[in-house]
Amino acid sequence: MAEERYDIAIIGSGPAGLQAAINASIRNKRIIIFGTEELSHKVVKAQKVSNYLGVPLVTGIELKNAFQDHIDKIGIQITYERITNVYAMGEYYALMVNEKMYEATSIIMATGIEYTKPLKGELEFLGKGVGYCATCDAPLYREKRVAIIGHNMEAVEDAKYVNELAEKVFFIPMFKEKFTLPADIDIVEDVPVEIIGEEHAKGIRFNNSELFVDGIFIMKDSVMPDQLVPGLELENGHIKVNRNMETNLPGCFAAGDCVGKPYQYIKAAGEGCIASLNAVSYVNNIKEHQ
C-alpha cells in the first residue's frame, strides 16, 4: 500500500527526467523522481559537450555536476530505486519496486534508450517461469533450480539472495566486471540465445549447450517501455508521443531518447520541459474535477 499519492512520478534521471522534475517542482507539484546515483551515466561518459546552451565546451562530468548543483539548490532528491512495473489504475498509476508500491496521478517516462534486446522466448515465457525481479519472486522457487542471467553487478547480489532459498543456482554473467559468488553457485560461461519450454519455461539454450531449470531471472539495466508499462504504444522501438509528449495512455508522458532521435542532451531537456508542463496541466485538471 502506498503511503501517499504523488502528483507526478518521473522515471529516469537524465536531462529529460531532471528538467521535468525541475519544472514540476517549481510549479509546486508533489513529485518523485527515480534514478541512479550516477545521475546521468551517458552524460558522464561524454568527453566534450559543445552544443548545450549556456554551458559551452564542457566535459560530460562538468555538465553532470551542473545538473546536480541545479537540483540541489531547488531541493530535488533522487530516489535510488528501480521501478519494475507500472500499472494504469484509472485515476492513478501504481509504480512497483519489488514489494513496495508508489502511487502518482501522472507519470513521465524518461528512461533513455539503452534497452537489452529480449532473448528468443523471453517475452513468451514472461510470468511463466521468467521474471525480472529476483527479490520479488525468489520465494516461488524455494528448493528448486534457478538460473540468473545477469547484465549488471546488481545481479550478483540477487544471485546470493536466491541462493539462500533455491536448491541450485546457475549464474550467467553478461558483463565484464569481476565479481565473487558463493562456491555452490555454478557460473555458466556461455552465451544464452533462447528461453525454451512449452507452456512454462523449462530452460535456456546457449551457443554450445542447454540448461534445464525451474525458473529464470533476467536482471537488466532497463527493459522495453511497453514491458515496463503494459499497454504503452511504441513506434520503431521508441515510445510514441505527440507534440505535447503525451503517450496513448492518459496521464502518461514521455521525453528524451526513449521517444526518438536525435539523441541530444539539449533536445531531451526540452522535451522534459514540455512533458512536465503538460503533466502539470493534466494534474490540475484532475484536481479541478474531483
TrEMBL record:
Classification via Pfam families: Pyr_redox_2
Record's protein name: NAD(P)/FAD-dependent oxidoreductase
Keywords, in A-Z order: Flavoprotein, Oxidoreductase
Membrane-traversing stretches: none
Keyword Flavoprotein among UniProt keywords: yes
Organism domain of life: Bacteria
Protein source organism: Oceanirhabdus seepicola
Molecular function GO labels: oxidoreductase activity
Domain FAD/NAD(P)-binding: 6-272
Cited InterPro entries: FAD/NAD-bd_sf (IPR036188), FAD/NAD-binding_dom (IPR023753), Ferredoxin-NADP_redctase_2 (IPR050097)
